[in-house]
Amino acid sequence: MTTQHWLNFIDGEWVDSAERLTILAPAHNQPVATIAQASVADADRALEAARRCADSGELTRARPAQRVTWLLEIAAQIRAIANEGAQVLCAENGKTLRDAKGEFDEAARYFEYYAGMADKIEGTSIPLGNGYMDFTVYDPMGVSLQIVPWNFPVSICARSLAPALAAGNAVIIKSPELSPLGLCVLLKALERASLPRGAVNLLCGRGRDVGAHMVSSKHIDQIVFTGSVPTGQSILRAAAENAVPSVMELGGKSAAVVFADADREQVLNSVRDGIFFNAGQVCSAMSRILIHRSIYDEVVDAIVAMVETLHIGPGEENADITPVISAAQLKGIEALCRQAQEEGAVVATGGEGVSDRSGHFMRPTVFRDVTPQMSIAQVEVFGPVLAAIAFDSEEEAIAIANGTDFGLVAGVFTLDLNRALRCSRRLRAGQVFVNEWYAGGIETPFGGVGLSGFGREKGQEALYSYVRTKNLAIRVKGE
Ligand code: NAD
């Protein structure tokens, strides 16, 4: 695999560049492959191609049933290529083969789901009385620029790409520099679905030049960004110049609130998935657990016992704890763990990287005796690190859960239905899980409040992020 060289996909063709980027495997720090690093000139070609395709009306001229056919064909092609894609994604990203395959399966599901909506984007008629006819239609935005992060590149890309195509937009995907190869496989699947030329373009380029150039372009009609808060803020400043509407899916510091009556098995399973899946590199990870003081020691001890059974290893072995994406990521996680200890948090297990491996492995970590204002309870770590905080009352739990700048997801663990519903309404988050972390799916709207961003992805609601409402107000003579 080391000799393989991947290309960008611009205006219906695979395109090389003078500059190459070497992709390193997080599990052993060795080269996996190289990829053409797009230049600003490549970005301009992609922008022109997408603009031409959007303005030509090729994606919208045919009956909507044509878009249904395209999306179903893409889904079938993704399923056909999923095993190849999983190998590539596992190697470049460090995640397990099982989860890498899961990303391709989920990507196919997004196309199937939005295929079901592509011919149902219906407007409304508005009564204005005699002499008038008034109705709304939904037009595509035009050119949708979609900037993708490295943690779930394939499924996050499909999450935005599928509804954008369903609504008739042309798309430019900016892939993440640390993990761009899985998206090349995804594009191979799309290429086989005979979409109009220029409808989907894929560029791997540096965020600070190619990404920054594209977000400032007058050729784009929308920015869909998933990534970190500082990058999102800089993109929003650029978008403001041309008043380009944006969807922002940013970070999180999400809390599970565990009451004394919670089902212990549900809590433990949710912790395992919630913070250790994908080595904690999940925007909606359960990075804080708030536990009623009466069961705090019992639950923390049970979590620690569970964590100490987890196997650390490469994704190829389907290990429980896979490497984090890069040396810099590991360094950042370790620094936050040191800071937590300086501020008085106690390492219950883990707390540092694994020094006897060449890859970037972080020990699954639990901090106990965390107080709400400590940095480990406020800053997004983006690693397998859980902060356990004790609370005494429901009121206090809600205040702690809502007491960060973020608001992506939250969780409540209790067998008391009234308490679950009461807390769910008061938690400041775009999605609340009750008794199972990640209980939602591609059908359920997802997005944040506060520094977690705005706009919604997933579900029927997301489709309306990819259209503009136009109203037609008509004077009817003689009525
Ligand atoms: P990042 O912000 O560093 O990069 C994301 C993307 O933005 C990359 O493709 C990068 O090249 C590009 N980019 C960087 N600078 C740019 C600029 N100035 N202009 C345009 N594009 C630019 O984020 P990351 O490190 O790849 O991902 C981790 C972050 O993403 C975490 O904070 C995580 O919480 C967040 N995230 C959020 C969600 C969500 O749905 N809310 C999902 C996954 C990840």
From TrEMBL:
GO molecular function, one term: oxidoreductase activity, acting on the aldehyde or oxo group of donors, NAD or NADP as acceptor
Keywords, comma-separated and alphabetical: Oxidoreductase
InterPro entries on file: Ald_DH/histidinol_DH, Ald_DH_C, Ald_DH_CS_CYS, Ald_DH_CS_GLU, Ald_DH_N, Aldehyde_DH_dom
Residues the record marks as active site: E249
Gene3D superfamilies linked: Aldehyde Dehydrogenase, Chain A, domain 1, Aldehyde Dehydrogenase, Chain A, domain 2
Domain Aldehyde dehydrogenase: 14-471
Similarity-based family: Belongs to the aldehyde dehydrogenase family.
Annotated PANTHER family: ALDEHYDE DEHYDROGENASE-RELATED
Protein name (Swiss-Prot/TrEMBL): Aldehyde dehydrogenase
Organism expressing this protein natively: Pseudomonas rhizosphaerae
